[in-house]
Amino acid sequence: xxxxxxxxxxxxxxxxxxxxxxxxxxxxxxxxxxxxxxxxxxxxxxxxxxxxxxxxxxxxxxxxxxxxxxxxxxxxxxxxxxxxxxxxxxxxxxxxxxxxxxxxxxxxxxxxxxxxxxxxxxxxxxxxxxxxxxxx
Length: 136
Known about the structure:
Shape: elongated
Distance between the termini: 48 Å
Helix content: 40-55%
């Protein structure tokens, strides 16, 4: 069951109530600052949204992941490699990290893609390109 207490009040008043009742034994570090500089508008669940359109967040990594999933297929060396221990990061994650590094160094998207594929093939990763070119 939900409590009405959490529908009203600010985070500062809630934390102060938790300290007063003994649930929290130490004050959070941010509490003194929040008491001196409270938020300009208290948080309420029933307040209306601020006017204006919320911008859509698009990250470069998301675009690179989309390009990878649409144009590349990772081919395992053999059936047993599917059951092997994970190295901690997927091929897609390594691809995105490598390509982002190349692009930060000033290479175009196509050149960074070629360099990344070469680097991953040197690491014995078998990647098959399923479509010609990159998705824009």
